[in-house]
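Re: the 416-residue chain
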Amino acid sequence: MAAASLFADLLRQARPRNPSVTILRAFPLSLRQPSRPLSSGLANSQGLAVEEEPAALVDDLRSRIFRLRLPKRSAMDALDRWVGEGRTVTASELREITKDLRKSKRFKHALEPICTDDMISEWMKVHQEFELSDKDYATRIDLLTKVFGLIAAEEFFEGLPSSAKSYEACTALLHSYAAKKQIEKAENLFDRIKELNISSSVFPYNEMMTLYISVGQLDKVTVVVDELKRQKVSPDLFTYNLWISSCAASLDIISVRRILDEMAQDPRSDKQWIAYMRLTDIYLAAGQLESSQSSLSEVDKQISQREWITYDFLIILHVGLGNIQMLNDIWKSMKMTKQKMTSRNYICVISSYLMVEQFKEAGEVIDEWKKSKGQEFHISDCNRLFEALKKTGLSDKAEKFHELMLQKDYELTSDS
C-alpha cells in the first residue's frame, strides 16, 4: 500500500531514533528520482551531491571532502593527504563530517554522497589509532545497506565480534530489515534483542510497529504493545501515535479513546502529549470516524480509507511535536498523490494549521478543498470542526476559524 509505505517513511524520519541511524527516506516513491544500481554505480559520471562553499574557499578537512564532486575522487585520499601534511584529525571531527555528508541527501543528484561517507568510516577502520565505537559500527551497517544492499550489511554484522554486536548495531540492522520490509528477519532480530536484554529502549518496539503498519498487518501492532508492557518498557509519544493510528485505521474507535485515556493518566504527559490528544479528539469529532460495524462496505474503498487515516495521524503527531515543516511536507505529498482525499483529510489538515496558528495556510487548504474534484466541499464539515474546537477548549482557535470562513463568505453555525 503506497500510502502506508509513505507513512512509514515519513515517520521514520521524524521520530527520535537510534542516534547512529540517519533516516533519509522522506518523500513518496512517486516523487523520488529513479534509483540506479549502486554495485557498479559508484564511478558514475554524475557528480556527488555537495554543499556550496563560499567564494573564498576555506581550507579545512570538511571543505576539502565536500569539494569532492566525482565519486572516483576518494575521501580516503583526501584524509591521507590531510594527515600527510602534518595536520591533525579527531574521531569526533570525522563523525561530524559523516553526519553532514549524510544530511546532504537533500540535494537532488542521481547518486547519493553515501559512498564518500562510507569511505570515512572505512578510513577510521584502517587507521587503528581510531577506536570504532558502537555508534560507528551502527553507522556502517546503515551505510552498507544504502550503498551495497542488505546482504552486505548482514555480512558485516555477522562478522563483528560478540562484544560489538551491541544495542546500536542490532537496532541499526533491525531498521534495515524494517525499511526493506523483511518481516521474518526483523521479527527474529527483535526477539534476539529482547533475549540479550541489551536495552530497555522503546526504539525497537516503535520500529516493529512502524513495519507492521507499513505492510498492513495492523493486528500485530497491539501484540507489540502488549510485549512492550510485559517488558516494562515505557512508551513514548511515537509509540502511542502508532498504536492509535493502527486502531483508527481498523476503525476501532473504542480502543482509540481507551488509549487516549491511558495517555492522559501517564505521568510523563507534557504539553506535546496534550496537544496531540486535543487534536485527536477534534479529529474524531469533526471527522466523524465511526466503528467498523457501520463503516464502508467496499473492500477497496475501505483500504483507501485506512491508508488515509495513517496520513492523518502522522499529521496529528507532528502538530503535537510543533513540527510545522513536516506538516507542510506531508500536506504537499498528500496533494501530489493520485488517490482522492476525503473530507476528513481536509478537516485534519485545516485543524492542524489552526492549532499551530498558521491561519494563512489553513485558508489555502480550504481553497484547495473547494476546487477539488474528488471531494465536494460541505459547510457542515466545517461546522463540525468549529464545534469540536470549542468543545476541546480551543475557543480562540474556533474564533479564528470563524473569521477565516467569514472572509470566504461562509457563516459557521454552532449547537452551543
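Residues 17-55, 105-120, 292-300 have pLDDT under 50 and may be disordered.
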